[in-house]
Amino acid sequence: MFSGTQMIEELWLIPLGFVAGILGSMIGLGGGIIMVPVLTFAGFAPTVAASNSLFATFSNAIASTISYSRQKRIEYSIGLKLGLLSIPGTIIGAYISSDVTPGIFKILFVLVLISSSIYIFLRRKFESKHYNTSKQVMLLVIGTSFFAGMISSFFGIGGGIIFVPLMIIAMGMGMKNAAPTSQLVLLFTSFSGLITHSILGHPDYLQSLLLAVGAFGGGLIGARLSLEIKERSLQILITVVIIIAAIKLFIESIENMF
Known about the structure:
By secondary structure, this protein is mainly alpha-helical.
């Protein structure tokens, strides 16, 4: 059972999940890209940070999918296929994460953060107006979905950083539908990942619950704000935050080595 003192000490996770949920829902990458660095800074072990984040990502994806469904911006056929294709990768990613050291995890996550910031800042330039469903593209989709599932479960970020560019660049989907469809995909990746992490005994369920509560509310609000907020302002803000997090993680990983 959870003690009252422990509950109070962990309440800061609710606003963390809320803020991460808003940003994750709006850009379609999942809130893990915000939550995992913060949890890592707070001293959480890699597997705990990743597994806790997946609970919140799943909660956020539920709320976002409901909201985006009402806005009729989800491509269900594509989302379901990508989600199912990613499941084997999520299982492998969770198992691999059990053996990674904090220092290596931080260095690898720095690369993910840098990739995320580049994509977020330049994503309008990736827009395409034509769907591409050729055999070559479908083979790329299958392989990339598996890889995205591994990344999702290993880092606890949901995999949106892979899925959104895949839908836009390779498949020709517009951003208006790619980010919402990504949230449907994250339902599968995050749920499969959190189940595997749970079997392995990685998550702290109180922390996961508090993050999930905040992320759910953030998902509902983020989906609404995506129709109103100036995208360029959001891009700059998130890019700056992510770059700062990447620099701090890199410095910490270097210090741990010496």
